[in-house]
């Protein structure tokens, strides 16, 4: 009789290596390493994975929060376990590491990662994600990762050596709360000739204006002081998000922003998200930009409905003659009995027509007098409008919504195809 053990095929040994790699890369790192006990063949599988992800859950139980506190003993154990894990990766791993992710941004302190970055630089790292706690000064070995194509840094201090020329293969760059000089940031971006995606979230006020020279750039998301950024050469930029942030909360000079040549080099811009988040009092807002941007089709804004704030989106809409989609996030000061604005009456907009506007979305609307003025204006001047979606404020009662519907039915609409929807988000 045949031995039952001999009759059972070794299923695990017949799985192709590329399939095994795909399976292990989808598992948490701890579980991927544990597969080494399955068989002799599987003992070294995790050691050749080209993509590794390490996060806080690797070193602490899910219900154990002491590692995120100031407990000195717990912090010491955590650092020791982290160091051991990194040592095992460095000594056991064979082959290239194309993608590495380290997420420990909620730790009280950061463990040593100099050896890790040196190991990655020697193993042709292409995609690197570092989410670190507080500010960590990146070691010189980081600046030798010349195969990088995708880079994400959070809470890092960049002080490159004098001979650093940049990452000339970089396609995407994302910097969150990174300490870097204006000159270095400008140089870093300019030397990334293949850069297509750029995300900058910087709360510190930079000392100098950053000129963005990126001929291949397609998407840019900037959060910070918008007066410190200038798009010098971005002929392929199609998507731009700007969110104003300033620690001292000084008034943002909207008028200067609109009359400057900020958008002049954005000849291919299709999507614009603008959120300057402050009320600009006493500024003379221009009726339109110094030039028209024919390419912009999608505009998202966050506004207050005082006189100055409402003039800003109207100025932009006038400057984008081929605008098709408009989304406005309403911000409220909840003052009662606010009077109507003369600048929102139809008489104030002679010969202005939004010929290509097809869809409008108003978010967090409290159907105030001024908001109703804006809705009336857009309906009367948009002959191609197909759809207007009004998302009422979450505190708005049903009776107010019913009254709003009745008022909307009275407004003149330039488009016979336009439909109006009240939809709760």
UniProtKB/TrEMBL annotation:
Residues 9-62 form the F-box domain. InterPro entries: F-box-like_dom_sf, F-box_dom, LRR_dom_sf, LRR_FXL15/At3g58940/PEG3-like. Gene3D superfamilies: Ribonuclease Inhibitor. This is F-box domain-containing protein. Pfam families: F-box, LRR_At5g56370. It comes from the Eukaryota.
């Amino acid at each position: 009789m045949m031995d039952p053990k001999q009759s059972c095929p070794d299923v695990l040994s017949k799985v192709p290596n590329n399939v095994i790699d795909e399976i292990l890369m989808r598992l948490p790192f701890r579980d991927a390493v544990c597969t080494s006990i399955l068989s002799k063949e599987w003992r070294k599988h995790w050691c050749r994975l080209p993509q590794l992800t390490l996060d806080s859950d690797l070193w602490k139980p899910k219900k154990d929060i002491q590692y995120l506190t100031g407990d000195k003993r717990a912090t010491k154990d955590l650092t020791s376990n982290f160091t051991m894990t990194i040592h095992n990766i460095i000594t056991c791993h064979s082959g290239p590491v194309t993608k590495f992710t380290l997420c420990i941004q909620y730790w009280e302190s950061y463990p040593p990662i100099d050896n890790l970055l040196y190991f990655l630089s020697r193993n042709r790292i292409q995609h690197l994600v570092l989410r670190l706690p507080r500010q960590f000064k990146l070691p010189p070995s980081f600046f030798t990762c010349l195969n990088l194509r995708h880079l994400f840094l959070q809470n890092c201090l960049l002080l490159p050596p004098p001979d650093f020329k940049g990452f000339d293969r970089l396609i995407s760059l994302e910097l969150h709360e990174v300490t870097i000089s204006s000159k270095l940031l400008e140089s870093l971006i300019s030397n990334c000739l293949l850069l297509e995606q750029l995300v900058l979230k910087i709360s510190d006020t930079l000392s100098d204006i950053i000129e963005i020279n990126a001929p291949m750039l397609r998407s840019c998301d900037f959060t910070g002081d918008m007066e410190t950024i200038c798009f010098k050469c971005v002929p392929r930029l199609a998507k731009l998000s700007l969110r104003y942030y300033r620690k001292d909360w000084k008034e943002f000079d909207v008028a200067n922003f609109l009359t400057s040549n900020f958008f002049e080099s954005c000849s291919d811009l299709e999507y614009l998200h603008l959120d300057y988040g402050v009320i600009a009092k006493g500024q003379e807002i221009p009726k339109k930009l110094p030039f028209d941007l024919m390419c912009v089709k999608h505009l998202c804004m966050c506004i207050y409905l005082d006189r100055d704030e409402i003039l800003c989106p109207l100025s932009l809409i006038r400057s984008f003659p081929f605008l098709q989609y408009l989304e406005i996030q309403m911000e409220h000061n909840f003052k009662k009995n606010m009077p109507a604005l003369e600048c929102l009456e139809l008489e104030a907009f002679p010969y202005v027509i939004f010929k290509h506007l097809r869809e409008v979305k108003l978010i967090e609307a409290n159907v105030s007098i001024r908001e109703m003025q804006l809705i009336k204006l857009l309906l009367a001047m948009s002959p191609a409008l197909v759809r207007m979606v009004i998302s009422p404020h979450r505190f708005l009662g049903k009776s107010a919504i019913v009254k709003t519907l009745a008022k909307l039915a009275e407004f003149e609409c330039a488009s016979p195809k336009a439909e109006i929807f009240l939809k709760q988000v």
